[in-house]
Amino acid sequence: MTKALTKQGTRISEVARIRGVRLVEGSGKVRFRDVDEVPDDADIAIAHNGQIAAPPGEDGAFFVLATADVRVVPPDKKGEPFLSVRAVFELAYRLPSGFVADRGELDAFAGVNGVFNAWPYFREFVQSMTTRMNVPPIVLPLFRSPKQKVGKALNAETPDAKAAGEEKTHESKRSRQLKT
Predict the structure, then answer these.
(1) 130-88-66 Cα angle (round to 5)
(2) Phi-psi region of 114 (alpha: psi -120 to 50; beta: other; left: phi over 0)
(3) How confident is the model at residue 8 (pLDDT cuts 50, 70, 90)?
């Protein structure tokens, strides 16, 4: 996300109050029976976005839909993902009486703050869903901008781990435990 987009939503983020978060859509699909079927160099692809579901009404209430898709994909990015999890959260906000925001500000707020505010819910949903799929749980990283490469799937280093001098991610340790 660009600094201009973040700056454009700043005026709203300084005054908006979050009123609630609810899951409105959730799904997951696993396409393997044994984690050994997933190559060690498979990637985790994360995409997310936020959009205004309902602009502010007279009472200042407005709603954002924040979506996240997580997929474990083959290293060549061809073919079906080995695993996919999708969640859509609706976030309810309220602006102070008399505050007026234009559509550009609202879109910028939804794309940055909406996704950022929903990110802990996404992280819990993905970790819980992958655990229920009986695969090593995927623990999403801290919030990142879209299309940034996150790392390898289930048992390889992430850029954060490499930068910190760590050998493997939590997922890789868990994956090795399940394989032994």
Answers:
(1) 120
(2) alpha
(3) low
User: Mind listing the pLDDT tens digit for each residue in 95-136?
Assistant: 999 999 999 999 999 999 999 999 999 999 999 999 999 999
| Token pair of 27 as six digits | 């799904």
Domains in the chain with CATH codes:
3-153 (3.10.420.10)
Of 74, 126, 161, which Cα lies nearest the Cα of 170? Answer: 161
Tokens of 116: 């950022």
* C-alpha span between 159 and 97 (Å, rounded): 44
Neighbours of 75 (CB within 10 A): 12
Query: DSSP string spanning the chain?
Result: --HHHHHHTHHHHTT-EEEEEEEEEEEEEE--SSGGGS-TT-EEEEEEEEEEEE---TT-EEEEEEEEEEEEE-TT--S--SEEEEEEEEEEEEPPTT----HHHHHHHIIIIIHHHHHHHHHHHHHHHHHHTTSPPP---S---TT---EESSSS--HHHHHTT-SS-HHHHHHHHHH-
